[in-house]
Amino acid sequence: MTLRLFDTERRTMRDFAPLVPGRASVYLCGATVQGEPHIGHVRSGVAFDVLRRWLQAHDYDVYFIRNVTDIDDKILNKAAEAGRPWWEWAATYERAFDRAYEALGVQPPSAEPRATGHITQMADLMARLIDRGHAYASEGNVYFDVQSYPDYGKLSGHKLDDVHQGESTGVGKRDPRDFTLWKAAKPGEPSWPSPWGPGRPGWHLECSAMAEFYLGSEFDIHCGGMDLVFPHHENEIAQSKAAGDGFAQYWLHNGWVTMGGEKMSKSLGNVLSVPNVLKKVRAVELRFYLGSAHYGSMLEYSDKALYDAAASYQRIEAFIHRVAERAGEIPVGKWTDAFAEAMDDNLAVPRALAEVHRVVHEGNKALEGGAVDTARELAGQVRAMLNILGVCPFDPKWYAPEDTSAATEALDVLVRAELERRQQARADKDWGTADAVRDRLAAAGVEVTDTPQGPEWSLGSARGKAN
Predict the structure, then answer these.
(1) What is the pTM of this model?
(2) 23-46 per-residue burial string, b: 16 or more CB within 10 A, e: under 16
């Protein structure tokens, strides 16, 4: 395996060389559980699930950590507005995120730590920073001294004079560019004891403490959305390295899901929740859509783009099912060299999908020519490639065969009668009738393939088109 990844920190492609041979340690910044997940939230889960699957396919033992931020100003404010306990609000939407990840076939992480469960580790990290002269306490708050860390801004490219943390000035903060590690308790807010007084952790501190606890002072890959590069990830690096940790060796960032060129967010009012989108397409089709663009690129949402991706997946799916109907069981084969080259090139999924479609095209040609064994072998290659992308139609996640033999036999009688009518119309050169039959079958979700042995049919989808 010669996997090369684009490292945000070094701004270049780098060969992946894990700290421990045969093991890959990955930390993904997870959700701040403040509300219903939208498709922009879960894109990182899908994108880096593909990375995880590619590593696993090459026999890496993958330690994959995805945290939950369950204490945050937004959570407190929204819970208060709704008149509900903050912990109940956070737990409710943590479960909503879990359902969304599970629906899209995202593998559960090795561990999914909550911020509130790691206050002790955060206190230890702050104590180390204070001892090293990189942090200071003031009136119950603890702040990181940005000027004490010379490499501050290396990840994001920010100059120190231009730094704005996006947080309040803070009581006792020496420099507005310093960021908060610990917030002194306020009346009516949850708090935990600490050597500097009761309070709660700052957002940036949480991830550094949890990453170190689960993956060690040095680990391989840190992932997240590009909106986290600054200040979140910049601050993670500063506090972790200032405390003496090597921290992440590679930094990977996924692009946003946009609408009208703007980042999808609740503030823009253009949110598409996962449950709502799953009313438009199947879960496997939504996953295919979210994972079809390169992870580092922007993904511009529209209903048409979603339906086009669903139709593209259905064509691949239909090929797999046609081969199974003709040839029986399709063992999972081996991906092609072109697919591997694409995946090794910074997870170039669009190129990898182009290879999937090429093999599907060759497989359909083989079927049409009666070369069933060749089609079966090609379908096995397609299955192997789709497994990496997490969308194989025969994966138990997506495929639950039912005993519908009686219904299928009845449907076959009806469809065969229509196909015979179409064949007779073609023989009579009555092209209008022939086309009308095919269109009627297509509208009912029946796909017709003409072969040297005569027309064959399979069930596809009668999904409507976008406006």
Answers:
(1) 0.85
(2) ebbbbbbbbbbbbbbbbbbbbbbb
